[in-house]
Amino acid sequence: MTTTIITQPAAPILAILGENGEHHTRGWGNYAAPPGETINTRLYGAVRRCCPVPGDAHIVEQVMARRGRGIGWNDDRATSWADIRAHIGDGWEITDDDLADTFGPQWEHIVALVRRIVVLTRGEVVRLASAASAAWVWASAASAAWASAYAASASAASAASALAVRSLIGQGKITQSHYARSPARGGA
Prior knowledge:
mainly alpha, two-stranded antiparallel sheet
């Protein structure tokens, strides 16, 4: 049974970008502005400003990239406002199947980690940074973690990478021993 995990309504995105795309831009755009101030931003900048659950915008961005509708698609001059508006539709529902397709069988842990990373306090970031070890970067799980964790620390991304790697135990040359020795697991 497929379950909706993340819901992103269209109305808040369109409130930021404009019903006719009058505030949509390509390139970096703006991610933050004082409340009530109109800014020009790209599609996923708008999603970051209005996603109902902190961190979910980073997850949505990765799912959409897997579907071929990532940042590069938004920034492509061949992508019209009509294309972007059609993509927004009535909003998005991201299911457990979407998350498993994007992040693998450890998707629940990755979603929990990304949601936690974006609400870390400064003190928590300092503590994580002091305990950080070399980060493992693996597949789109690490990409989502890095997108959220760039301000947090390498240890948070390392943990997401370890979760992604855990699902690969027994495939190719990856063994339980590799996972147990990973820096994110406290190994050497």
